[in-house]
Each structure stands twice: as C-alpha cells, then as structure tokens.
Design goal:
CATH topology: Growth Hormone, Chain: A
CATH superfamily: MFS general substrate transporter like domains
CATH class: Mainly Alpha
Number of domains: 1
Number of helices: 15
Subcellular location: Cell inner membrane
Oligomer: single chain
Strand content: under 5%
Shape: globular
Radius of gyration: 20 Å
Membrane topology: Multi-pass membrane protein
Largest sheet: none
Main location: membrane
InterPro entries: HcaT-like, MFS_assoc_dom, MFS_dom, MFS_trans_sf
Order of helices and strands: HHHHHHHHHHHHHHH
Distance between the termini: 33 Å
CATH architecture: Up-down Bundle
Keywords: Cell inner membrane, Cell membrane, Membrane, Transmembrane, Transmembrane helix, Transport
Length: about 400
C-alpha cells in the first residue's frame, strides 16, 4: 500500500475510459431502443414491462455476487473479464431464431452478467483515484460520450432499417467492452475478511447511510417509467425515431458538461448538496414529461435536466460511497448500491410503471415518478450528513 509520503502512481485514464466508453455505448443502444426492439418482436406493453424489469431484477443479485467473488479471489480482475466474456456470449442468444418465451431466459442471462461488471469496475476506478476521487467525472465522462455516439447513430439506422437490426448492431460493442476489460486491473489487491464484512454491515446500519440508500432507491424508482417506456411514450405522441434519438442525446450532452465541471463543485461543496438538487430536479422533470409531452421545447429542457437527475446524482453518490465505504469495503458498498437502488428500485419502478401505464396513456406513471424523486430529496435533505459543508474561498 502506498504510504502517505509516497506519490500516488499515475492514473491509467485511457484504459479506464475505454471500458466506460464501450460499456455505456452499448447502454446507449439498449436503454432508448430495446423496448422498440421488443415491440418489433410482437410484445405488448405488459410483456415489455416484465422483460425490462428483468434488467433491474438481476441488479438485485448480480453486483453483490460479482463483487463478493472478486473480493475473495487472489486475482479479482479475472471476475471482471469473465463477466464481460459471458455478457458477449449470452447476448449472442438474441441473434438466434427462437420463440418469444425463450427470450426471457436469454434476457436474464445477459442482464445478469452485464449488470455484474460495472460495480466491480467502479471499484477498480476508485482504487486508482485514491484520494483524488473528485477526478472521477473526467474518466466517467467517456461513458457519456460513447452513449451519445450510439444513441444518435443508431436512431438514424433504426428509423431506416427497423428495430429488428438492433442486436446485430449491439454485439460488436459488447465485444469491444470485453476487450477493454483485459486492458484494466486494480491499482492494488482488494481482498476481504470476515472483520471487513462485519464492519461493512455496521456502517450500513448507521442512520445517515441508511437514509442515503433509501433516497437512492427512490431516485431509481422514479426512473422506472423513463427507462422502460419513454421511447414508446414519445412514439405515441408522434415523435420520429430520429427525433427520439435527439431527445436522448440532449440529456447526455449536458451530462458530459456536468462530468467535466463536477470536480470543481466537489472542491467547494459537499456531495450531499448535489444529491438533494439532483433528486429535486428529477421530480420536476417527470412532472413536465407527464404534463407537456407534445411541447418539444419543454421536453428538450426536461431532457437537459438529465445532467442533474442522473449525472450529478451518480457522481455525488460515488463521492458518498467513497466516504462511507473506504478501501476494501468500497466494492461491497458498490454492490449494495447497485443491487438495492438500481436493482430493487429499478425492477419495482418498471413494474409500477407498467401497472400505471393504462391511466392517462403513461402520464400517471411519470407523475408517480416525480413523487418518488421528491420523497428521496426530502429524505436526503433531512437525514444525509455533512450537507452544510462550508464553501471554500
């Protein structure tokens, strides 16, 4: 371990950024367009909501399973690479002709491995950054750039050639992600012991940490209608696929700006302030989406706030996780964060959105999403610690 007087080794920015780029490039195809692909396979709204809930359901178990396996392994990086290779292999199942019911099994396998690898990689990135965790945004921003490149170009392709082509377009991205995993490694070994695990749960039981996880859960719950049905929602209001791609791109463009500027914010303000702001902005965004979906300027502004509801939220969450779970405990913290908030929150958000979709053609689902985000903001304001951090001059 590096001593306090030893200079921290250089951060391998290019290698870390390459993995984020390809991982989120694939997500840039999956998140906006996968529901359209499922629709092209003849699935209805209820079936799509169940299928998309599998994406979040696997997040409940995959992150903690993978980070635990990596933590006790003498070579934890192997688990990252195994997960990436299995992501490629399982996703290839979508290319095979098969009845609709078997798609559920393929979806479970693909989502499990795809969701398993990112929490481990976040831990890898933080081991390299060490005390410079405020630089996280400058590396993570490459994921947003990959997302933008794909969501823009794939929207154009799908509009002209149909959503059935989507799996063939996505498979090379997963292959490149797998290749990037072989270029990366931990900055140091991050094993675990029983004492560490006991210490981890002692931290989780602290009221401020519990409040953080509950707020994060509610934030992810609020995204259920967006991640599951936003593309279909825009389609039913007359938006073309290329315009839909623009809507997704606008949000991520502003997300890039946030990731570039976030390090300066964290030097002056505590991360918990940004957590509160991000969730409050998400509430306003979902209510605007529910009330004025046909108004393109309003929708563009609403999409622009993705830089707060997602990027700022995620960056502040990484800061708080680094604070709450230092060193060897961070991988476990990442696993719980992804499993509980993104996993359980995501699957319930997708299922609730599916049930509410019949009311007002989706408007009720987005109104409920806004209420969930507001509740998370209130909990964060009241219970998450260190929010009154003094501004540095």
């Amino acid at each position: 371990m590096t001593s306090p007087t030893t200079p921290q080794p250089p951060v391998p920015v290019a290698r870390l950024s390459s993995f984020y780029f390809f991982y989120y490039a694939a997500l840039g195809a999956f998140t906006p367009y996968w529901s359209l692909y499922l629709q092209s396979r003849g699935m209805g709204v209820t079936a799509i909501s169940v299928m998309m809930s599998l994406w979040y359901a696997t997040r409940v178990v995959a992150p903690s399973t993978w980070t635990s396996l990596a933590a006790v392994s003498p070579r934890p990086i192997r688990w990252l690479r195994i997960g990436c290779v299995l992501t490629v292999a399982s996703f290839a199942g979508f290319l095979l002709p098969q009845p609709q019911w078997t798609l559920y099994a393929v979806m479970v396998g693909f989502c499990f491995f795809y969701n398993a690898v990112m929490p481990q990689f976040e831990s890898i990135t933080l081991t390299h950054l060490g005390s410079d965790s405020h630089r996280y945004g400058m590396i993570r921003v490459w994921g947003s750039l990959g997302f933008i490149a794909v969501v823009t170009s794939f929207g154009w392709v799908i509009e002209r050639h149909g959503a059935g082509l989507l799996p063939w377009l996505m498979l090379p991205l997963f292959v490149l992600m797998s290749g990037a995993s072989f270029l990366n490694r931990y900055a140091r070994h991050v094993g675990t012991h029983a004492a560490h695990v006991q210490g981890f749960w002692a931290i989780v039981r602290r009221p401020p940490v519990l409040a953080f996880f509950i707020a994060a859960f509610l934030e992810q719950l609020s995204f259920g209608p967006y991640y599951t049905f936003f593309s279909l929602y825009m389609d039913q209001h007359g938006y073309s696929t290329s315009l839909l791609g623009l809507m997704w791109t606008v949000g991520v463009v502003f997300e890039v700006a946030v990731f570039f500027l976030i390090a300066g914010f964290f030097k002056r303000w505590d991360a918990s302030w940004l957590l509160i702001i991000s969730m409050a902005s998400a509430a306003l965004r979902w209510w605007a989406t529910a009330l004025w979906p046909e108004n393109i300027p309003v929708m563009l502004v609403a999409q622009a706030t993705h830089c707060l509801g997602f990027a700022a939220f995620f960056a502040s969450a990484m800061q708080l996780l680094a604070r709450y779970f230092p060193g060897n405990l961070n991988g476990h913290g990442q696993g719980l964060f992804y499993g509980f908030s993104s996993g359980l929150g995501g699957v319930l958000g997708a299922l609730i959105a599916g049930q509410l979709w019949r009311f007002g053609d989706g408007r009720a689902a987005f109104i409920a999403g806004g209420c969930f985000a507001l509740a998370g903001a209130v909990i964060a304001f009241c219970f998450v610690p260190e929010r009154p951090k003094a501004r540095k001059q």
